[in-house]
Amino acid sequence: MIAMLGLLSLGLTTGCKNKKKDDKPQVEKPKVDEDKAKKEAEALGLTKDAWIAYQEGVALLEQEQPDRAGAIAKFNAVLETHPEVAEAHYNLAMIYEYQGQDEKAREHLEKAREYDPGAAEYKVAMGRVYAETDDFDKAKLLFDEVLARDPSNKEARNNLAVLALKKGDLEKAKEYVITILREDEKNIPALTTLGLIYKQQKNLSLAKYVFSKVIDLDKKNADVYNNLGLVYMMEDDTPKAVASFKLANGADDGYLESRLNLGSILIEYLDYERANAQFEQALAINPDHCVANLGYGATQYATAKYEEAVKRYTYYVEKCDTKHISSYERLASLNQGPLKNPKAALEHYRKLLSLSTEKEKQQQYKAMIQFLESQANQQEPKEPAPTEDGGADTPPADGEDGGPEEGEVEETPEG
After folding, report:
1. What pTM did the predictor assign?
2. Rounded CA Rg of the chain
3. How far is it, in rounded angstroms, from Cα 162 to Cα 177?
4. Which tops the pLDDT comparison, 7 or 134?
5. Which residues, in sequence order, are CB contacts of 80 under 8 Å at separation 6+?
6. C-alpha torsion angle, residues 281, 287, 288, 294 (rounded to 10)
7. What gap in Å lies between CA 329 and CA 317, rounded to an integer?
8. Which residues contact 193 (CB under 8 A, 6 or more apart)?
9. d(C-alpha 30, C-alpha 190), whole Å
10. What confidence tens digit (pLDDT) does each residue in 294-327 have?
11. Letter string b/e over residues 403-413, b meaning 16 or more CB atoms within 10 A of that residue's CB
């Protein structure tokens, strides 16, 4: 399992701001002036409760460690009574995009654009989601449309740089980024993209320099700590990579990629308990994430929690990669061994035989299929042989020929 992700979509603004960190960040509900809240809600065409819920949702996102689950509940509460509130859909989309739940993000962005089609930030966000799902043409169309209306829009320009980077056009990507940095040399998204460009060019010294510069500007930027960790991995400097991934975790409790990367390193070093904690946290952020499910399956397998391991491997081959040979091998092995389910094991070996193109592997799978089939045949109950009078032989009763008399003990082989 490889989770050293090339995170080319990083550095894009999500609208969540940071504040000074407390030991246990708490969000106080906005102090409500009932009359003022009522007037504001009426002016916006909302109920007072919906308007207050929206403000509380924004406050939950703006704390040092954003409470995204709480914010989701607040914005959904707004939409229950006012499904037309584009801003609530947009904030939900930003949360889901950050968590890697692209389908949910796309759903809410489409709603936001339906209710407010002219908003540039909705178009940019929609373009990002298209880019993250490799729909590059649709993404570029939206970014170009925003820039045509507003040539000064740095976010759209930076996203065009990221898009060019994903497509492998590094010179074009750098051109977009330099245009931004000439106007704003401390633009964090543009600097992050520049670091990614150097990383892809394998100019690791410059990549580290740029990422360090971003950290000087924003010490709570989980994206950049994670990308710095990936650069250290490219240099085979595992201790520094681990330190960077831990800093990313600490910068944002809801950040996903660094947990996947750290978990992968810990698996490689056979530290299954700590790896398991990383994948468990990743699944709490996004239960449907493919790599998180695969990694959790691996750590559950290694710590002898076999039923949970089967659940995760099954999820992966059903939802993520129907041709993932190593997952089918684990499923076959688990069912044949500790779970004692030869029927399921046989099914998985047959699947492996249909997928593999390696002759040696095919021979192994055929041998296992033959072994399991022979076992199954031996365990099938046989019909009693007919007797001369047409009936079936039945075991003799106690005391008759072939059985021990009452009080006698029939000797059997030891063991």
Report:
1. 0.74
2. 30
3. 9
4. 134
5. none
6. 50
7. 11
8. 11, 158, 161, 162, 165, 173, 177
9. 34
10. 999 999 999 999 999 999 999 999 999 999 999 9
11. eeeeeeeeeee
Distance in angstroms (rounded) separating the CA atoms of residues 95 and 318: 26
Whose tokens are 């245009």? That residue is 179
Tokens read off for 402: 């072939």
Is residue 155 classed exposed, middle or buried when 0-12, 13-18 and 19+ CB atoms within 10 A define those classes? buried
The token pair at 188 is 């964090």
Q: Which residue has the tokens 């449309």?
A: 145
Contacts of 216 (CB under 8 A, 6+ apart): none
Say if CB 297 and CB 318 are below 8 A apart. Answer: no
Average pLDDT for residues 282-287, to the nearest whole number? Answer: 94
- Position 242, amino acid: V
Burial class (CB in 10 A: 0-12, 13-18, 19+), 397: exposed
CB atoms within 10 A of CB 273: 10
CA–CA distance, 95 with 383 (Å, rounded to integer): 63
Length of the chain: 415
Give the integer Cα–Cα distance in Å for 286 and 409.
64
The pLDDT value given to residue 14: 32
The model's pLDDT over 78-99, given as tens digits with 9 standing for 90+, comes to 999 999 999 999 999 999 988 8
Helices (H) and strands (E) in the chain, counts: 20, 0
- Nearest-angstrom CA–CA distance, 259 and 252: 11
**Cα atoms found within 13 Å of the Cα of residue 303, Cβ hemisphere only:** 16
